[in-house]
Prior knowledge:
Order of helices and strands: EHEHHEHEHEHEHEEEEEEEEHH
CATH topology of the domain at 2-117 and 280-298: Rossmann fold
GO molecular function, one term: nucleotide binding
Domain Gfo/Idh/MocA-like oxidoreductase N-terminal: 3-118
Mean pLDDT: 93
Domain GFO/IDH/MocA-like oxidoreductase: 156-216
Shape: globular
CATH architecture of the domain at 2-117 and 280-298: 3-Layer(aba) Sandwich
Strand order of the largest sheet: 7-8-9-6-10-11-12-14-13
CATH class of the domain at 2-117 and 280-298: Alpha Beta
Number of strands: 14
Structural class: alpha/beta
Low-confidence stretches: none
Amino acid sequence: MLKAGVIGAGHLGKIHLRLLQQSSKYDLIGFYDGNEEVASQIEKEFGYKRFHTSEELIKAVDMVDVVTPTVSHYEVAKKVLSAGKHLFIEKPVTSTFLEAEELISLAKTHKVKGQVGHVERFNPAFIAVKDKIEFPMFIETHRLAEFNPRGTDVPVVLDLMIHDIDVILSVVDSKVKSINASGVSVISDTPDIANARIEFENGCVANLTASRISLKNMRKSRFFQKDAYISVDFLEKKCEVVKMKDAPEEPDDFAMILQNAEGVKKQIYFDNPKVEEHNAILDELETFAYAIENNTSPVVTLEQGAEALRVANKVIESFGK
C-alpha cells in the first residue's frame, strides 16, 4: 500500500481524506491544512493524524494529494515534487501554464508521477461511451451551476468550463486552431458566465457554455460525428448513442427510416450503454496508485492538465476581443 497524505482539508479535501482512508490501495498517514481552526476541528471530528507543517507530511508519505485553493497549487506541488514524492493535484493544475511546465520538468527530474484531478474523465456515463466517440466534428457542452461562493476566486472558465475543455481535448485528436469567447461578471470580480467556440485543425468545432449563477444545475455534453450522435449527462450519469446506418431493403414495421432528397434511406438505431455505478473520485485516486505501482502513465497526466489550462487561459484572454 502506498502511504498517502492530503494537503488542504476544505470541502473537497475532506472527501479525499475519507476516500483515501477507505481505499485498499492507500494507507492514509494524515493531513495538513494551514488553517489552524479547520485543521483542529477535522482532527477532533474524524481522527485523522494532523501534521503541523506541510514539510513533515511530505516527508512521511509516498504520495501527496493536493486539494488546496488553485492560487497555492504551484508552491505546494513544487515542494512535493522536489522531495521526490508522487503528486495528485486537483484541477486546474496551477494558475499559469508556465507554472505547470515547471511542475512537469520537476516530475521528470525527480522521476515521480503526477496526475491532475479532472474527475469527469472518470464519470460513469462518460466511461460508458468514450470508446464510441470517434472523430467528432461538432461538440456542444453546457455546464451550469447554482451560485456557490466557493470557487469564485477564479473565472468560471477555470472553475467549471475547464472540465469540459479537458474532456474535449481527450477525444479530439487535433490541435486547437482558434478560440473565440465572451464572458460576463455578474456577481463576482471574475466572469460568472462564459461561452467559447473552439475550432480544431481537423475541422472539429466545440461550443462550450458555463455559468455559476444559474437557477438549476446542468452538466451535459453532446458529440456529433459521421452517422452518430452521442449525449452524456455528467450530472445524472446517463448517456445515449444514436446511430444511422443504411436502411435494409425490407425494414420492420417499427424501424425509424429517414430518406433524403436523393432517395438515400437511413435507419436510426438507439443504444443506451450500461452505466456502471462507481465513485469517480475514488477511481481517479486508485488509478493513480496503479500507475505508480506499475510504472504506467496516469489517466490524466500533468501534461494533459497543463494543456487544458493553456486552452482555458486562451479562452479567458479572448474575452472582449
